[in-house]
Prior knowledge:
By secondary structure, the protein is mainly α. The chain has a domain of about 200 residues. A two-stranded antiparallel ribbon has the order 1-2. α1 packs across α7, α5 runs antiparallel to α9 and α6 crosses α8. The chain starts with a helix and ends in a 9-residue tail after the last helix. The model has no long low-confidence stretch (mean pLDDT about 80).
Amino acid sequence: MKNFLKFVCVFGGILLLSAFLAPILYDFFETFHHYKFERIFNRLVMIGAIAAAVFFVRIKKESLVKFGLIWGSSSFRLLILGFLTGIGMLGIVATIEVLSGRAAFSVQDMNWAQWTGKIAAALGTGLLIGVMEEFFFRGFVFRSLQGLFKNKILLAVLVATVFYSSVHFVGMKKIFVGSDPNFIDGLRLIGAPFVSLAAWPKFWPQAVGLFFFGLALNGAVCRSGSLYPAIGLHAGCVFFIRLDDLFMEFQGGKSLFWGSKILYDGVAGWFILILAGLFLWFILKPAAANRP
């Protein structure tokens, strides 16, 4: 709990420092190449947050064990199980949409080198996002909340999952930044996430889908005692979504039942997410059996 509160305070300092440095770097880069002020601010926050997380975690074996990231004899199996579950889960949703006429199976005309490049890029992106987000949300945040709530697992899962779901929408609402940004514009960017969350009627279906997805990810971590099934599940979903435009052509508009092409913002997608979470819970061995 002490380290978590320290991290919160440090993150607040990172936001203020980023608001101070962003105008300076904007003016510097303006001489050589134009970068958007918001992009510079976001990159400063990201670099600062990663540096702070590494500092607080202090990558040691004890930390990796606590967060479920230590590599053991069952880790590869858990990773592949999660990965295939993610692909299978979204594959089922996509198949239902094709059979219902909401989408059509249409493979793009590309050579083997182009296909290889697309697949490799999607796999790399999926694994990178899976490792980074699961380490942060299901590792650092969830385990810190678990300690904060004195091992009340359900409460820690719910709070971590709501945080995971909502944080994806903090950048939806854009604010106007002029051609000569300053420290005040940086402070306005800090407050922009709260303005974005006030627009929840526009994105609540996606938020519900991410909530169910977060429950499936957290359930896999709690059940197995390892981050690897969650990393695999997350990577498999990102991998599929990055590639589905290459073999599917989505037709028709968005609806509450079917959602949109992202597949998790409708009732059908929510149902499959719930089934995937239950599937992983029942197929995974309890945590003690997965210890290295």
